Amino acid sequence: MELATVKEKYSFQLENAKDIHVLAVSPKGDKIMTTGFHGNTIVYSFPECKEIKRMSGYGNVQFSPDGKSALTFTKNGRMMLWDLDK
Q1: What is the mean pLDDT of residues 62-71?
Q2: Are the C-beta atoms of 16 and 37 separated by less than 8 Å?
Q3: For residues 33 and 84, is the Cβ–Cβ distance under 8 A?
Q4: CATH no. for 19-83
């Protein structure tokens, strides 16, 4: 496949995009989760990119297989499991 033949499906601008270092997509593709050196993890609806939840987190982030939970960790190494349905 040539990159020149790929067409853009969605385009959006996230707040503080220059601070984002990690982006994860939920298993169903209905949410995205971002984090960066600012210490916040933000979950957005997708493709609307409306903020759903803001929580502590840094570095890698992971959705659970059902997309209802997320795992984040802080700079001091504390791991947290979040319920995204609340």
Answers
A1: 93
A2: no
A3: no
A4: 2.40.10
Output Rg (C-alpha) for the chain, integer angstroms: 14
Q: Which among 77, 79, 25, 27 has a CA at the least distance from the CA of 55?
A: 79
Q: 54: which residues sit within 8 A by CB, 6+ positions away? A: 40, 41, 42, 43
Residue 18, classed as helix, strand or coil, is helix
pTM: 0.77
User: Which one-letter amino acid corresponds to residue 51?
Assistant: E
Task: For residue 2, name the pLDDT band (cuts at 50, 70, 90).
Answer: low
What is the end-to-end Cα distance of the chain in Å, rounded? 42
Distance CA 55, CA 1 (A): 38
